[in-house]
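W.,

You were right to be curious about this one. When I first looked at the sequence I had no strong expectations either way, so I just let the prediction run and decided to look at it fresh. Below is the sequence, 107 residues in total, followed by the output.
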Amino acid sequence: MKYYVRHKLYLCQACSQKTMIKVYHNPEFLNYSSSKSSIDMNQLIHVATLDVSSLEDAYIATQNTDEPWQPETFARSTSVGDVMEKDQQFYVVDNCGFEPLKEVRNV
C-alpha cells in the first residue's frame, strides 16, 4: 500500500522490499532519443542514492513539486534521458517508464 503525502512517498513495510537505487542526471537530457543504445556514463552526474522499492519510487522522490526534493543543492527534477541504477543494471528514464540500457559506455 502506498501513501502520498505532499511529494513524499511512504510505503507500507509489508508491501515491498527496498533496495538502493542510484539516480544520475544527464546534462544532455534534452537531446535524448529513445533510439539511443548507449549513454556516455562520464557525462552523468550522480545526484542521489535512495533506499526505495522501485524505479518508479525513485523517480517520484526526485521530483520538485511544492518544494525542492534536494533543497541544499536545488537539483532539477529527474526527467526523460536521465539514468537510474538498480542491482548493477542501468535504466534510462523513457517517455513511458524505464528502458534497460543495452550498453554502458565509459569513454
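Here's what jumped out at me. The longest helix spans residues 55-61. And, maybe more interesting for your project: The radius of gyration is 14 Å.

Coffee later to discuss?

I.
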